[in-house]
Design a protein that fits this description.
Layout lengths: L12 H7 L4 H15 L2 E2 L2 E3 L15 E6 L5 E5 L7 E4 L5 E5 L7 E6 L5 E5 L4 E5 L5 E5 L14 E6 L5 E5 L6 E5 L5 E5 L12 E6 L5 E5 L4 E5 L5 E5 L5 E7 L3 E6 L4 E5 L5 E5 L12 E6 L5 E5 L3 E7 L2
Parallel strand pairs: 1-22
Antiparallel strand pairs: 2-25, 3-4, 4-5, 5-6, 7-8, 8-9, 9-10, 11-12, 12-13, 13-14, 15-16, 16-17, 17-18, 19-20, 20-21, 21-22, 23-24, 24-25
């Protein structure tokens, strides 16, 4: 299987996957070496100054999740106590609404489905909440406070949907180290994965996304790789040249973006895993990134980026 990575750059990759985890510095060197050969370009995204102003007295904690819906609304899910944990903005960055009626233990990713419902992954409580666009709690996956397998979770990290409205959950920070699949009604269907560093195993399945063909892309963050599976969990390929992925997002048709925290950037790759380009640099000034954790896209192509240093930024293509 091809990973989109020149095998000459990774002659010992299989051995190292079996015997021990690569150090981050080594992975970064491999990422840079791949880029020297392929010369990916700056994609031209620039920060929109002042986007996402908050009411007086509000302050964000770690911004763990961001997503957008079909009405250009932007949802932000964060871990602070000085502002509601779920905040909704319009595309210009004005706060439209917020909710604090759920006692979240550890907010992680937020995902909007095809009906603009909002799914909130609380890895600390082992549960995923489904909210209406008006904030009403509609249903849950998992049982709050209960760890487990099958239909239960052990610190889930993200949820994604295919065209048939089936659900995939990365599960996650606990002992399961798997992807779980559910039908549209929330009935458990199947699972795949286990703890380990080999192909098809996970060190930390941190986020996931599904493309138009039903392929599932899993950010195996602490193993510095993206693993690609068919709809029922058969391994298709592994990409090891894109950095340490905190989030992975598919944008139809045929665009895939990855949040790379140590390299402080967002990277676009083709559906074959070839790097197209990237943007971002390390720092805490506007346009820079620190704790690069989550990304989402508005219909016009603008990018929303959530940072663990308590910032949310909007990037737009420069003219």
């Amino acid at each position: 299987m091809s990973s989109g990575t020149p095998r000459a750059l990774l002659p010992d990759r299989g051995r190292m996957l079996e015997t021990g985890r690569l150090m981050g510095s080594e992975e970064m060197l491999r990422t840079r070496a791949w880029e020297v050969l392929h010369s990916p370009v700056d994609m031209g995204y620039r920060v929109v100054p002042g986007w996402g102003s908050l009411p007086e007295g509000w302050k964000l904690g770690q911004v763990a999740g961001v997503d957008t819906d079909s009405e250009d609304r932007v949802y932000l899910f964060h871990r602070g106590r000085k502002a509601p944990p779920l905040i909704c903005f319009d595309s210009a960055g004005k706060v439209l609404s917020s909710w604090d009626h759920i006692d979240f233990q550890q907010p992680h990713m937020v995902t909007c489905d095809a009906d603009d419902n909002v799914w909130l992954t609380d890895d600390g409580a082992h549960i995923i909440y489904k909210l209406s666009p008006h904030g009403e709690t509609l249903s849950t996956l998992g049982v709050r406070g209960d760890r487990g397998s099958g239909e239960l979770f052990d610190r889930p990290t993200d949820i994604a949907f295919n065209a048939q409205r089936e659900m995939y959950v990365s599960d996650g920070y606990g002992a399961n180290m798997r992807v779980a699949k559910f039908d549209p009604d929330g009935k458990f269907m199947l699972e795949w994965g286990e703890a380990g560093e080999g192909p098809g195993q996970f060190v930390l399945p941190h986020a996931l996304t599904v493309d138009d063909d039903g392929l599932v892309y899993v950010a195996d963050r602490n193993m510095w790789r993206v693993q690609v599976f068919d709809p029922d969990g058969a391994l298709v390929t592994v990409w090891t040249h894109i950095g340490r992925p905190s989030d992975v997002t598919y944008v139809s048709p045929g665009r895939l973006f990855i949040c790379d925290a140590p390299n402080a950037r967002v990277t676009e790759v083709t559906m074959a895993g070839e790097v197209v380009g990237f943007f971002g640099e390390l720092g805490r000034n506007p346009g820079q990134m620190a704790g690069n954790h989550a990304i989402a896209f508005l219909p016009n192509g603008d990018i929303i980026n959530g940072q663990l240093d308590g910032r949310v930024q909007k990037f737009a293509l420069s003219s």
